[in-house]
Write a structure and sequence with these properties.
The protein has about 250 residues and is an all-alpha fold. The protein has one domain.
Length: about 250
């Protein structure tokens, strides 16, 4: 329900922009809607594989793939452009420019909350406890989604923020987080989360999925950074500079 509401609000905002003649790429609507659909699927559908493999599928969608699709939809940019001048818009700007937001969106902090939370979930009895206590399980799912969104938002740096960290900071953080995620997957290949008893084949399948699926999403994040680096380099390149014998024209 929440995912479908978010998609509807996003589409209503983009329609408002287009009605008044503002450009808004359709690919952002498609990306955000796909992210909402992926979240709804991961939280409600019967996921493939054994219990641990299904858990990892849910983790990859909720913590990594869906946040990337949502962030590529540029929701903050859309909200700032669609909202009329007034208290709501000023409040959104104030939150985006606040000191707590700047701290949380510092890439290493966002990575610690995201990847650190995954280590805590899978290498302590928290995973088993969340399975047996629905309220705790709901809180864990909420944290995984929020931390994944925070990390993706911080690394991509697409929406307007008080401080946009350099590509070097964001790239180094992505590399470190990807390494930590891969190491976690390797530990799960050999040892299940404490307090759980998964079949060996299920555990190994889930761990491999976590390793390679995480790599796939991290490569997509790296591609976002690469596009930004290329665009920045193109803007800084002097007019008329020769590159491999081809004259560049602005």
């Amino acid at each position: 329900m929440a995912a479908s509401t978010a998609a509807a609000v996003h589409l209503a905002g983009s329609a408002r922009l287009r009605r008044r003649g503002d450009a808004w790429p359709w690919r952002r609507d498609v990306s955000f809607t796909a992210g909402c659909a992926a979240l709804a699927y991961a939280m409600t559908a019967a996921l493939p594989g054994g219990p641990f493999t299904a858990h990892i599928v849910q983790h990859l969608v909720v913590a990594m793939a869906a946040p990337l699709l949502l962030v590529l939809g540029r929701p903050l940019t859309l909200a700032l452009r669609a909202l009329p001048p007034g208290p709501a818009r000023r409040a959104l700007v104030a939150v985006g420019h606040s000191r707590p937001a700047a701290v949380l969106l510092f890439p290493p902090v966002a990575a610690l909350l995201d990847i650190g939370g995954l280590w805590l979930l899978h290498r302590t009895p928290l995973s088993a406890a969340a399975h047996h206590h629905p309220l705790l399980g709901a809180a864990v799912h909420l944290h995984v989604l929020a931390a994944g969104l925070l990390f993706t938002f911080a690394v991509c740096g697409l929406d307007p923020l008080r401080h946009r960290w350099s590509l070097a900071w964001r790239g180094a953080t992505l590399l470190a987080a990807g390494t930590a995620h891969a190491v976690l997957a390797k530990t799960l290949y050999a040892v299940p989360p404490p307090g759980t008893a998964h079949a060996g084949a299920d555990l190994r399948t889930g761990a491999r999925l976590m390793y390679y699926g995480g790599d796939a999403v991290e490569f997509a994040l790296a591609a976002v950074l690469a596009v930004q680096w290329y665009a920045t380099a193109a803007r800084r390149r002097p007019a008329g500079q020769l590159v491999r014998g081809v004259r560049l024209v602005r």
